[in-house]
Amino acid sequence: MNICLFTAEEINRPLAPHDERAIHLNKVLHKKEGDTFSAGIIGGQAGTATITKTTEVPNPKTGKPEIQYEFSFKGESDGKPLFPLVMIIGFPRPIQLKRLLRDIAALGVCQVHLTGTELGEKSYMQSTLVERGSAYQMLLDGTVQAASTHVPELFLHTSLKECLESINEKDIKITLDNIRPEGSLETLMSGISELSENQKIVAAIGSERGWTDKERNLLFEKGFKICSMGKRVMRTETAATVSASIILSKLGFLD
Hints:
The chain is α/β, with parallel strands linked by helices.
């Protein structure tokens, strides 16, 4: 936990002893009264929290003492901004999704669109892991890993067609595909020196079995450049994190 994040309402309240953030401060960081730790408001400022009071509270189940923390927060910056990269992801296996969301949130993408695809396993969309609350928690975990305060927006779609209706036509659009690529992602990104104001890059990655011809045609009609990352076939989670890294690096955001 590289930063403790709080909602705007939580930032002025004592931290209950059973809260995972309090457990981390106590068991991992061994924080005491007068100590400081990195903290931030979700979607807002990052800064430093100072522990003003610690109180031992008995655990009602075990009777063992736990620590309740009271603290003051001082904002020092607006937090690390998210990058103008939108990821469209065909629903992968739930265990992959968990890692994927954490990793791309840590990289700093601004939006994640999870979508059903024609070849994707329909049951994945009904998994408890993709419920909005659970998926958001994974994005929050990645944000904490990056010591950031800004969490990517999350959108859920039942089909690629529905998903693409929400994409800005002025954005630069890329999709990964090994079947009929027009070129490599590396080459394509080398030709993009900068983005215009309010413009984003949209990168679409299919589910485990890839895109159908119908979906490829739809992406092409919507202005997506079809490209590859070599001849090797990658998992959805691998393709998502690698492509995001290449795009962000080429745009200078990882310098």
